[in-house]
Amino acid sequence: MSDTIKIFNAKENNLKNINLEIPKNKLIVFTGLSGSGKSTLAFDTLYAEGQRRYIESLSSYARQFLDRVGKPDVERIEGLTPAIAIDQKTTSKNPRSTVGTITEVYDYLRLLYARVGTQHCHLCGKPISQMSASDIIEQVLSLPNDAKLIILAPLINRKKGSFTDLFESLRTKGYVRAMVDGVMVRLDEDIELEKTKMHTIKVVIDRVTANLENKERIAQDVEKGLKESFGELEIEIMNHEELRVEKSIHYSEHMACFDCKISFEALEPLSFSFNSPKGACSSCDGLGIRYALDMKKIIDEDLAIEDGAIKIIYGFNKGFYFKMLIAYCESQNIDTKKPFSLLDEHHKKAILHGTVDEFEFFWKRHKLKRKWDGIVKLAYDMIKDEKEISEYMTEKKCDSCGGNRLKPSSQAVYVAKKRIPDILNVPIEEAHNFFKDDKNFKYFSEQQKMIAAPILKEIKERIFFLHDVGLGYITLGRDARTISGGEAQRIRIASQIGSGLTGVMYVLDEPSIGLHERDTSKLIKTLRALQEKGNTVIVVEHDKETIMASDFIVDIGPNAGKFGGEVVFAGTLKELLKAKTQTALYLNNKKRVEYPHNRPQEEFIEIKNVNINNIKNLNVKIPLRNLVSITGVSGSGKSSLILQTLLPVAQELLNRARKVKKVDGVEIDGLEKLDKVIYLDQSPIGRTPRSNPATYTGLMDDVRDLFSKTKESMLRGYKIGRFSFNVKGGRCEKCQGEGEIKIEMHFLPDIMVKCDTCHGKKYNAQTLEILYRGKNISDVLNMSVDEALEFFAKVPKLYAKLKTLSDVGLGYITLGQNAITLSGGEAQRIKLSKELSKKDTGNTLYILDEPTTGLHFADVDRLTSVLHHLVELGNSVLVIEHNLDVIKNSDFIIDIGPEGGDKGGKIVDMGTVEQIANNHEKSGSHTGYYLHKELQQK
Length: 938
Hints:
Elements: E1 4-10, E2 18-23, E3 27-32, H1 38-56, H2 60-63, E4 74-78, E5 83-86, H3 99-102, H4 105-116, E6 118-119, H5 133-141, E7 147-160, H6 164-172, E8 177-180, E9 183-186, E10 198-210, H7 215-228, E11 232-237, H8 240-243, E12 248-252, E13 255-257, E14 262-264, E15 289-293, H9 295-298, H10 319-331, H11 345-353, E16 358-363, E17 366-371, H12 375-382, H13 386-392, E18 393-397, E19 413-414, H14 420-424, H15 428-436, H16 446-468, H17 485-499, E20 505-509, H18 517-532, E21 536-540, H19 544-549, E22 552-557, E23 566-571, H20 573-578, H21 582-587, E24 604-612, E25 615-623, E26 627-631, H22 638-654, E27 667-669, E28 676-680, H23 693-697, H24 699-708, H25 711-716, E29 740-743, E30 751-754, H26 765-768, H27 777-781, H28 785-791, H29 796-807, H30 824-836, E31 844-849, H31 857-872, E32 876-880, H32 884-887, E33 892-897, E34 906-911, H33 913-918, H34 920-923, H35 926-936
């Protein structure tokens, strides 16, 4: 069997007939400039072909349910092994997904607690013991006199089937009624159940009134019921509302708390599942959160009632409620001219929650008599659609389960003195230490040890791998929706190592994103562990450490876009360092990213009293008109401080943004020295194929305007709308301006075929006859930014916008490139160029979240130059970053840490690059240590 993978004539996207041979079972890095074709070769060619071959081997029936993968544009690939891609896409958007469920740790925890957990009563905390038949009889007889009871024996609990035999057997035993799925049915009638659905069946033993005369009868019924259902019994009290008792009581010979008079069901893994009615908290259905009215969004305490303090009943179409409130206040002598915050507490309560007193008021000449129900009830009645819910309501931790998602009884089960929430809510590092220590499980009996051993082995392994990929700071209970792309990818790497597969080709997309230099070495160790199990690990990466730790390097270039797509180097690190490629020049320090500025720190934004996530009582000063890097290990609190604390306040104050989610109790001074705030993240610039860089940056409007002003256009009466591919008129109507037509193939992948009318040009023949300097509008959209820069050199408006795109390193993308095909880093830089092309006031605060994502050393060089140019214009730039090339070129650094999670959230050090580097031993700054190493290489 071949020990290499051979690629022949790969032509996907911008690849130029690549022929390449890479070794199997090694750690291989694909590197090169952004947009040079690395991902195309790794994901769209190697992985896509591996995936396609696997799907082809399945039956046509199975194939229709899978993501169908088209054949990549490659002649052939030899020696290919099964492929698994671990990319940057964030994990599930499902609110029920947590880190524990994704990694399967939670499944094993549920099993452990169900098999060896000690059940306690959730009310009194005492261990659970069993109830005998006589105890149950005593309990039933102690119910209030004249309670109308239905005594039921539960037979089937949420199981699929039609249960015909069971009903027949009950009839022969003389039973008359049963309760099926909560509905009372007679057994002498035909009962047909859908066998594919879950059913719950309880037989009615007797219907009886609780009193002394019926004592014997009830005792016999209880014994009969316990016998029918093997020790289980349910009592339904028909007049429970009248007697003010619970409607249904469950008794069991198996588990009960005598002091609190509660029976418990036997433990099973489902008892700890928040996705099943058996384990989920009944108040929040296992989500851990509930939507509740946010009083701050409903009431403006600084205003008087007359001036609209109660926002929800003030304004257009709300006059009736407003008049009603004013009349109520007058009847109760509440001052409507006084700010709401200064009203007496009992008056505030009455306005919010209502009273029983009736009052009179006039509405449209009618005299009405009403009772005031309170703003809270009114708000719930008025809030109807989702838009209003987000406007007036907020997510709050569920009071019943404390945000732990489980029923109280499921939260009262202990293993080694810990409940399930105690393990889910601590950082993985702590959970790892707990399971590692065998002394914790010493108390197990021999039988428990045998049961727990294989379960504990799986839990330990999985938690160890999560800890090993640098995720020790997150918790197992963390909502999967809050996880960054880099974290999600590392969670999946940990899951893959746990699966123990061999002979597989793993393709990873920049796993070092969002990782501090300190954690990169941990990641490399993990990738090595994957490779040493007999797998081929291909990593698309720009990180220096990862490149230097690999066995084989493929450098793709020489430039980006249509000027790339060639293998400029393939070999070992030793050979690469002697080469002349862009990557080699930066690796051996012949080229360096150096922009020393040493700007003074004179004016500051001061943030005081920050309390959010892991940050407690933090005060910090951020210098203005500087390039400031916010650094620290993953999970230390960088995003909490900048994106969750500073950004919302800045957006509200400077951009007049409404509905921002602010952190309570924070004071921010110094924002008045700025004009606006701009936040540039990595979200896509558009979600449809109709979005492209030209439409997003506003270039398209200028290009259309230019074409509509040509002589021929004016003669024909074409206006600017004629040159839009989104509206009727100038576009090709067969493909509706998309250039492609989707053809659905039943068992094969849907294919996009070039439109045979416009041949992919998006416009009709008449529109394409309009030329500007010999080119039609379709030709312009197919130009790269650099080509367009030359073509429109004499059109100042267009030239300025194109120049900024080129300056941020996007000279290779085409103006009409489909927005869906742009990477996160490219999307962020298009946003940056759009902002750069606007008229600058010189007083803007720019906030960027890891702008170097997906950037090669040469691109980081250009980006750093652009960021410094922004500061030179008098702006302030804040960058959350791990990349040392950007950090060492900052004017000022704020290092947060020292670790992630609970061990973070503090300012470790702040100052200039040299101060942070020289002070690292004293401050314990990880960033300082690596900066010190970097600066010594000069």
